[in-house]
Amino acid sequence: MLFGSCKDVTVGPTAILAALLSRHVAKSVDFAYLAAFLSGCCILLLGILQLGFLLDFISKPVISGFTAAAALQIGASQLRNLFRVSGASGDTFVSAMINFFKNISTVHLWDTVLGISCIVTLLVLKRSSISASDIDSACRLRLAAGWQYVVRARNAIVVCVAAAIAAILHARGTVPFALTGKIEGGLPELRYGRLLAHTLGTRRLPSKRSCLVLLSVTLLADAFYFIPRAALGAIIIVAMAAIVDLAIVKHLWRHSKGQLAVYLVTVAAGAGAGLEYGILAGALADLGRLVIVAARPAMPTHIFKVGNQDSVRVTMAGVLSHVAAERVARVLRGSVSVDHVAVLDGKLLTHLDIGVAENLISVIKDMEGAGHSFLLWNFSEPLRALFEDLQPGFETRFVNGPSIDQPRTI
C-alpha cells in the first residue's frame, strides 16, 4: 500500500477516472490538479467524520450499471479510431454514437479492416487454449505453457504486429493507416507549484508496473510512432466489452425486477448524460426502490385450522416503519373474515414503529367491534411492552409457544 499497487488497493489513474475528467482537463490541465486536491480533501473529510457507511447505499446494480455505462462510453469513443471517421468522439456514449453515424461516410477502408482484424484476433486468442495433462509429452506440456503466455500477452502481440506492418508499408512509401505519430518522450520536470498534491503524489516509490511505464516513455517513445490508431481502438473496445457484466442482467430479471430497473436507470443516465449523472441517478433510483419496499412489506397469509376453528395467519417480518402503516391496515382488513380467527405472527418481527403499532391497535379494535377475533402470536417482549404501553389491557391477545393452540402466557 505504501510502495505501490497491490490486489487490495487501487493506485493510479484508471480509464473510468480519465473518462470522468477528460472533458474538463481538455479545457485546462490545471483542472486535473484541482480535482486531485479536492478529491483528497473530500476523502479526508469523510474519513474524519466516519462517513464511510454512505458507500453502503451504493448497491451492486448501481456499481454494475455505472461500470457498464463507462465501458460503453469508452468503447464508443474508440469507434472514431477504429473506423478512422472524422469529427469528435463525443463526451458520452450517446453523443459518440451520434457523431459516429453523422460522419460514417468518412470511414476509411484499411483502418476498418485492420481494426476489425485486431478485434477478431484478440477474441480468438482470448478463447484459445492448448490442453495438456501429466500423461502428455514434455513437448506438449511446454507448448501448452508457452501458449498461455501468448494468450496473456495478446494485446502486446497485436500492437507489435500491427506496428510492424505499418512500419514496413511506411518504408515502401505508403501509409494506409492513421498512426499514433510522434510522442514526446522523457519525464516531466519535477517542481513545486500550483497545488501541493501534485508534487506530493510523485514521492511514492514506483512498483514494477510504474517502472515499465517510465521505461517506455523514456526509451521507447520513438517506437510508438508506427502504432496504428485502429489497433489501439480495437484493444480498448475488446477490453471494455469484457468488463460489462451481462450475467447480472439475467439474475436480476429472474429474481428482482426492481433492482433490474435500477441497473437500467444507471446505464441509461450514464450513457446519455454522463457517468457522474449515471451513478447519481442510480443511487436515487435505488433509494426510491428501498422506500417502496419499506412502504410495501411482504405480509403473506395462510389459512389453517386450530381444532375446528378456521384461522388465517398473517406473518409480519423484519422492520415495519411508519411508511408501512397503511399497508398493514389494508392487509388486515382484506385478509380477515368474520368466521376466521386472525393470527398475527410476530416471530420474525424485529422492529415496529410507534405509528404502525398505533394504527395496528386501532384496526384490531375496529374489526373486533365488527365481530372479528385476533391473536398476536410470538411477539417479542419489547413489542408486547409497546402495545401494552399504548393500549393498557391489550396483553390478553398475546400468545406464545410453538403452536397457536398452546395456553396463553401473559
Task: Estimate the global geometry from the Cα principal axes.
Answer: elongated
Instruction: Summarize the amount of helix as a percent range.
Output: 55-70%
Biggest β-sheet: count, sense, barrel? 5 strands, mixed
Count the domains. Answer: 3
Helix-strand sequence: HHHHHHHHHHHHHHEEHEHEHE
Please tell me about this protein's structure.
This protein has helices spanning 15-25, 30-48, 60-77, 79-83, 93-102, 109-127, 138-152, 154-171, 196-200, 208-219, 229-243, 247-255, 257-272, 275-295, 325-335, 354-369, 381-390; strands at residues 301-306, 309-320, 341-352, 373-377, 398-399. α16 (354-369) links the parallel β3 (341-352) and β4 (373-377). With 410 residues, it is an alpha/beta fold. Helices cover 56% and strands 9% of the residues. The chain folds into three domains: 10-57; 58-187 and 206-290, no CATH class; 301-399, Transcription Regulator spoIIAA (2-Layer Sandwich), CATH 3.30.750.24. Strands 1-2-3-4-5 form a five-stranded mixed sheet, covered by helices on one side. α13 runs antiparallel to α14. The two termini are 59 Å apart. The longest helix has 21 residues, at 275-295.
